[in-house]
């Protein structure tokens, strides 16, 4: 019985010295693929990307037949010249998908010359889906049945590849009139399944047992299944090795057994104890209580009275309640529109508040009702309140009542005096309304001014230096804090977005004090900034508190610095259409990250040769699908989706039906998802290496030494490098001040691949984006497929006797001529393939019956049928007269 079960599976038993490689990130140069030569298993992912200078000849003879398993995912992105994966990975059998790339196990994205996937040995993608997108030459997708490889195909995303109607997909045997490949039904279409014209898609359940002799102690699962486990889903190890990796969980007795929940589906993992966290080989329960700060007051313009109590940070029985929202942001969103308070403003024990700037529009307190019948502004025991408002940008009037300030230990008296002066309450206040001893007693209120001595800017970093500062006792200086954040407008204040529960809109970097012997000014290198972005920056000291004397600190004014421009991201959503046989209309949207001011767009239009397979096959054979091509038209739905306000529909066609709310939401979600995926892809592909620790500020490394995974020289050449043997017919145009152009003087019914590149510098190619691609085909020429000149005939007195009918090929057809139809009377017709025509310059008619005949011929191109020729008459004599 057991033997019959084993025979039902296709078993790959690798009892050999297997080479296990770690994740491979191969880019820039084809020669880097050599690192795969000895890999049988890649324990991780395989990324092949950004080979802009590669040509098809670079991949000839390059093959890695040992590679069989990738445990995570496979990603291919912009590898030029690569036309198929069949030779590169002929034996890749399984992609496990243990870790996925944005939920996908196989991603093929913007592979511009890829014509077929060709992974003919791939039989199983264990987890994750397939994403194949924006590959303009990729065919043999309609011939694949992904359900033979995946458990579920509903999450596959296969769009924006070559139009299926333009693909001359021919499975093995079809050209000979045979059916050799497995046939299945997808969406009602029953057809053979194949990877290419050479390889069928095969079905088979795969059990992979990799029993590698890594050491004499290694076990073989086939022979001792009860003593082994499948670790990480594929590697066979001994059970006690798996146990050695595990930690002991509370409540357990010794090492986990096979029945322990630590072993999930017969697979061991380093730690699987539910509700425990692994730390220093022990487990501890995680007990987290959180309370969401979700209450929002409705936005009001007039408020009768307003009181803030200590309900922002909560504590109970030593259990910390975490507030997930940013309190300052929540308050500003809820109360930021209040302009007038008719009664009074009372702030009591609001320990979370650092500033009242969230009341950004409050300008009047009327005092119609007063706190304790006296006070229109009441502030009591707010331990972290440091600022009321930025008085250089805010004005407040108190029409009636006095102000009360007591036990606000970090609110300096200078801030309170400013409020008195601006609100007009100074003359009304009495002696005990404001306590000088209990306000600001824990703050450094006398601050010296720190001046920046040097500010150097790059596109992703800012180097700061400021003048030295030492308090009277130098030991009181703990260091400096550099605060910075994005600031589109120059209206930032020091305490914007801060609260005492940890929320802060500023990014804070700690800088150690310089050695006393060092005469240089202290400084800091701010990294990982966005190009062409304005930042607000300030520096202040960190001081120790002293009971013996008051320590005076220092801080700088807020300065605004814009980073330099850098290479923009690519243009978005290109669409193309053809309105004539010589023009292509092109539209696109500007980049999401211009990283500067876009100066112009560079549009490069490359003429594409027709698929070489079209020249190989005899399309007159029964069962051969007749290839066709269509010019690029922009349908009304795409036009409305792209731009609803531009040119009105001048044609007489019908309007498309309005979409339902559900359809619109679905479409918006899909667009957002596609953009999110593209952003994720670019972030992963172009991520920079980790920078140094934040506190390492002395002797910062030179600016030019920032490293990237992809070499900049390879990225600056954004124009595709096409095959050397091709004469690259291209049209280049610079577009200024708009996101559209019309490309003229093109060849009729010809496919073009168009690059759109955004630039934010007129002369520096390093300030141009990667290209965004779109394909288009011009419209056909009306008479281009007509056969020129007369049809001629010649009677050949051979056995069997026949008539040789000849005609001239159309000199400039729409695409290429794939066959000719010859009609002759007495009524008959024959199909003449391109291959047959090239052999005879026409065709042979074997006519057994003597008599008068007439012949007409028409050509069929990729655009359809041409016109019939004029009728040619001839007389076929009988054999006796011949």
From TrEMBL:
The terms under GO molecular function for this entry are: ATP binding
**Which SUPFAM superfamilies does the annotation name?**
Fibronectin type III (SSF49265), L domain-like (SSF52058)
One Pfam assignment: Recep_L_domain
Enumerate the SMART domains for this protein.
FN3
> What InterPro entries does this protein's entry cite?
Ephrin_rcpt_TKs, FN3_dom, FN3_sf, Ig-like_fold, Rcpt_L-dom, Rcpt_L-dom_sf
Where are the residues of the annotated region Disordered? 630-650
UniProt keyword Membrane present: yes
Q: What is its main location?
A: membrane
**Protein known as:** Insulin receptor b
Q: What is the lineage of its organism?
A: Eukaryota, Metazoa, Chordata, Craniata, Vertebrata
């Amino acid at each position: 019985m057991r033997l019959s079960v084993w025979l039902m599976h296709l078993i790959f038993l690798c009892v050999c010295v297997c080479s296990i490689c770690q994740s491979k990130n191969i880019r820039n140069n084809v020669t880097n693929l050599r690192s795969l030569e000895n890999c049988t298993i890649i324990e991780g992912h395989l990324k092949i990307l950004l080979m802009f200078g590669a040509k098809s000849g670079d991949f000839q003879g390059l093959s890695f037949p040992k590679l069989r398993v990738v445990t995570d995912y496979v990603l291919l992105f912009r590898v030029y010249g690569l036309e198929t994966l069949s030779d590169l990975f002929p034996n890749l059998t399984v992609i496990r998908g243990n870790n996925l790339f944005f939920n996908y196990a196989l991603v093929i994205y913007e592979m511009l010359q890829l014509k077929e996937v060709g992974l003919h040995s791939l039989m199983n993608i264990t987890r994750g889906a397939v994403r194949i997108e924006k590959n303009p030459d990729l065919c043999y997708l309609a011939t694949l049945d992904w359900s033979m490889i995946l458990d579920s195909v509903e999450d596959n995303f296969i769009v924006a590849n070559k139009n299926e109607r333009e693909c001359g997909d021919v499975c093995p045997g079809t050209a000979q009139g045979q059916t050799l490949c497995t046939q299945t039904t997808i969406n009602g279409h029953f057809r053979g399944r194949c990877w290419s014209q050479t390889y069928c898609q095969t079905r088979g359940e795969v059990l992979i047992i990799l029993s590698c002799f890594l050491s004499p102690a290694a076990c073989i699962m086939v022979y001792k299944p009860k003593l082994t486990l499948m670790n990480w889903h594929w590697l066979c190890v001994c059970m006690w090795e798996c146990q050695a990796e595990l930690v002991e969980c509370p409540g357990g007795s010794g090492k986990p057994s096979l029945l322990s929940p630590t072993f999930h589906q017969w697979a061991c993992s380093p730690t699987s104890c539910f509700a425990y966290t692994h730390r220093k080989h022990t487990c501890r329960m995680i007990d987290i209580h959180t309370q969401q700060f979700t209450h929002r007051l409705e936005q009001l313009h007039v408020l009768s009275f307003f009181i803030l109590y200590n309900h922002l940070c909560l504590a109970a029985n030593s259990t910390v309640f975490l507030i997930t929202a940013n309190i300052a942001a929540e308050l500003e969103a809820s109360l930021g529109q209040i302009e007038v308070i008719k009664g009074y403003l009372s702030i009591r024990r609001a320990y979370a508040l650092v500033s009242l700037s969230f009341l950004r529009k409050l300008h009047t307190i009327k005092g119609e009702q007063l706190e304790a019948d006296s006070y229109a502004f009441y502030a009591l025991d707010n331990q972290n309140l440091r600022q009321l408002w930025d008085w250089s940008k805010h004005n407040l009037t108190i029409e009636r009542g006095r102000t009360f300030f007591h036990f606000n230990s970090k609110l300096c008296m200078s801030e309170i005096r400013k409020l008195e002066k601006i609100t007009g309450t100074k003359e009304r206040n009495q002696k005990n309304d404001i306590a000088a001893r209990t306000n600001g007693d824990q703050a450094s209120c006398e601050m010296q001014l720190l001046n920046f001595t040097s500010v150097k800017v790059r596109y992703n970093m800012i180097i700061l230096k400021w003048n030295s500062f030492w308090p009277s006792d130098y030991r009181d200086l703990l260091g400096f804090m550099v605060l910075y954040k994005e600031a589109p407008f120059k209206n930032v204040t020091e305490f914007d977005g801060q609260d005492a529960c940890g929320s802060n809109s500023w990014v804070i970097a700690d800088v150690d004090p310089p050695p006393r012997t060092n005469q240089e000014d202290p400084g800091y290198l701010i990294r990982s900034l966005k190009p062409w972005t304005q930042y607000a920056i300030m520096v202040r000291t960190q001081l120790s508190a002293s009971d013996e004397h008051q320590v005076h600190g220092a801080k700088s004014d807020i300065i605004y610095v814009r980073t330099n421009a850098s290479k923009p991201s690519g243009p978005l959503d290109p669409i193309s259409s053809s309105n004539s046989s010589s023009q292509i209309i092109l539209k696109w949207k500007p980049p999401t990250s211009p990283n500067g001011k876009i100066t112009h767009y560079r549009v490069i239009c490359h003429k594409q040769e027709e698929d070489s397979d079209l020249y190989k096959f005899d399309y007159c054979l029964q069962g051969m699908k007749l290839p066709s091509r269509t010019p690029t038209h922009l349908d009304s739905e795409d036009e409305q989706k792209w731009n609803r306000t531009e040119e009105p529909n001048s044609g007489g066609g019908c309007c498309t039906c309005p979409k339902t709310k559900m359809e619109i939401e679905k479409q918006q979600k899909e667009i957002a998802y596609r953009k999110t995926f593209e952003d994720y892809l670019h972030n992963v592909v172009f991520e920079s290496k980790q920078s140094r620790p934040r506190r390492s500020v002395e002797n910062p490394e030179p600016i030019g030494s920032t490293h990237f995974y992809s070499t900049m020289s390879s990225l600056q050449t954004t124009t595709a490098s096409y095959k050397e043997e091709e004469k690259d017919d291209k049209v280049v145009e610079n577009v200024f001040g708009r996101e559209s152009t019309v490309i003229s003087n093109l060849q009729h019914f010809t496919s073009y691949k168009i690059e759109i590149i955004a630039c934010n510098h007129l002369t520096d190619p390093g300030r141009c984006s990667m290209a965004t691609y779109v394909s288009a085909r011009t419209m056909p020429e009306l008479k281009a497929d007509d056969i020129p000149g007369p049809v001629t005939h010649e009677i050949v007195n051979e056995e069997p006797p026949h008539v040789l009918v000849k005609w001239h090929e159309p000199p400039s057809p729409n695409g290429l001529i794939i066959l000719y139809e010859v009609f002759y009377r007495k009524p008959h017709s024959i199909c003449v393939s391109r291959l047959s025509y090239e052999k005879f310059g026409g065709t042979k008619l074997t006519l057994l019956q003597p008599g008068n005949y007439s012949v007409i011929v028409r050509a069929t191109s990729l655009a359809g049928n041409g016109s019939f020729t004029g009728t040619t008459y001839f007389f076929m004599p009988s054999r006796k007269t011949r």
